Amino acid sequence: MSRKFDGDRILVATHNAGKLEEMQELFGPLGIAVVGAKELNLEEPDETEDTFIGNARIKAHAASRATGLPALADDSGIQVAALDNAPGVYTADWAETPDGRDFLMAMEKTHALLEKSGAPQPWNCRFCATLVLAWPDGHDEVVEGFVDGTFQWPMRGETGHGYDPIFQPIGETRTFAEMTHDEKNAISHRADAFKKLLAKCFD
After folding, report:
1. Catalytic one among 6, 50, 74, 75?
2. Fewest CB atoms less than 10 Å from the CB: which of 91, 162, 182, 202?
3. What percent of the chain has pLDDT above 70?
């Protein structure tokens, strides 16, 4: 049986400002205060697993143990069918540079590989999000969310973060980066996972 969350404050184990903002907007209507890992000066643990669930568990449990708070961690990425579902769990790694993450570079790299592959368009892809809610006693609950779409080039839009400028959800004419936060949050992979988390732990 799933464990229910009964507090009024939750730690979101991320240093990513975009992800934290999304979570604050999603939790806002529930009256639950959201605090980020950066605000509590938590270090980012090494993500040594090769699955979204494995890495989300590492982050959630490390943050919960360090603070004594229930902690929610997300591990997410984009899978491109023509690239054997790469970058997948290594989505953020493809953006790593000595000066931080450069997702423009990562999107250009992905496009170059697609062109080199000779795969016909549309280039199908999927955003995946795994959420792990962990408690200080070691218990956790896991949910996964998805949204299917196509890889668009050239990039379009100025909002969002990560790979949003190249991702056009199925049934849409705009990329995530051309949508408002509310529009994206209604259909995103993270919103899909969040709805499942609400049903499992918050209803």
Report:
1. 75
2. 182
3. 100
